Amino acid sequence: MRKSDCLTINPSRKWMRHWQSFKLTTITAAMIASVSCAQFPFTSTQPTVDKSAPAADTSPIPAKQDVSESATATPPVAQPKQKTEPLEGEPQAPPIAQAVELPKLPDPGPFSPVKTLQVGSRGEAVLALEKRLALLRYDVGAVDGRYDQQTWQGVMAFQKYAKLQRTGTYTLETQKALHKASYPEGKHPELGLPRIEIDIPRQVLLFFDEKSLNRAVAVSTGSNRKYCEVSKKSGKQVCGVAQTPRGHFRILHRIPGWRESDLGKLYNPLYFNGGFAIHGAPSVPAYNASHGCVRISVASANWFYDTVKNATPVIVFD
Q1: Pairing between strand 237-241 and 226-230?
Q2: Do 275 and 168 have their domain in common?
Q3: Are 148 and 204 part of one and the same domain?
Q4: Together in a domain, 205 and 311
């Protein structure tokens, strides 16, 4: 009889020991696998991707347990949560406050038109105009009875929000609308307080502090046009599309005073998305004319810089 036939018909004891060892190893591996699946109920080694979540949330998280911990049937003991300190220089989101109702607007009485007011006008009619706009939270600067450039900005902000003709002049149409006007209302209260809303079609910025609406400011955002200009800093040609980014952001950092950028000067810029900032500018026209930043007047940029904190939510929308 050949040796191979002997192994087939009457296997040796050595072969039987190998066969029993192989079965024991297989059973042990199956038991370990069943315990691991109980702790980590995944049917695939590939991470499950939720398409509705941001990309940063879908990356696989490395396991914090070694093989010996995964192989035990004893559930891990929950550790108490430790308070994590914010990284130095990293903006932290301000706590969300409860909204406080604005004071009830007084009865303006019967409408009585006044003459058209414009930059350079002075007197009681201008003072009444400034008081009314300031009461509604429009930024007119000093309430002093003088129709200066900041009063013009306040009138412009009201005209933009009320969807009137944008002249910056206190016309009869503006007088009628202002007489019956109420407080400007935000469109995104779900963001809580404080927050900044930038309404692109209206070209208006609404700043809500920790309590309620603080001020409404006229802005000028990206013109949506292509441009090629010589850099003020490097002297090289800079090209792009003058578009303000839409979406949810936060105030990231700031630079005090005037800053020379490739495309011009920025006053007290508060950056919310890369190089895009809310900043003071000498020219804030009635229409969108910037390279992509959000322009506000230099006077508004002073209190805005001092009042708005880093990490304040910013939403830019159409």
Answers
A1: antiparallel
A2: no
A3: no
A4: yes
| 299 lies in some domain | yes
CA distances from 245 to 82, 289, 313 (A): 37, 14, 14
Q: Is 200 part of any domain?
A: yes
User: SS3 sequence, the chain?
Assistant: CCHHHHHHHCCCHHHHHHHHHHHHHHHHHHHHHHHHHHHCCCCCCCCCCCCCCCHHHCCCCCCCCCHHHHCCCCCCCCCCCCCCCCCCCCCCCCCCCCCCCCCCCCCCCCCCCCCCECCCCECHHHHHHHHHHHHCCECCCCCCCECCHHHHHHHHHHHHHCCCCCCCCECHHHHHHHHCCCCCCCCCHHHCCCEEEEECCCCEEEEECCCCEEEEEECECECCCEEEEECCCCCCEEEEECCCCCEEEECCEECCCEEEECCEEEEEEEEEECCEEEEEECCCCCCCCECCCEEEEHHHHHHHHHHCCCCCEEEEEC
**Residue 282's domain spans which residues?**
189-317
Same domain, 158 and 269: no
Using left for φ > 0, alpha for ψ between -120 and 50, and beta otherwise, residue 272 falls in alpha
At CA 152, angle to CA 275 and CA 113, rounded to 5? 145
Alpha-carbon distance of 111 to 118, in angstroms, equals 20
pLDDT tens, 221-252?
A: 999 999 999 988 888 999 999 999 999 999 99
CA–CA separation, 114 and 125 (whole Å): 7
pLDDT tens digit sequence for 252-291: 999 999 999 998 999 999 999 999 999 999 999 999 999 9
Domain presence at residue 239: yes
In this structure, the answer to whether residues 224 and 308 fall within a common structural domain is: yes
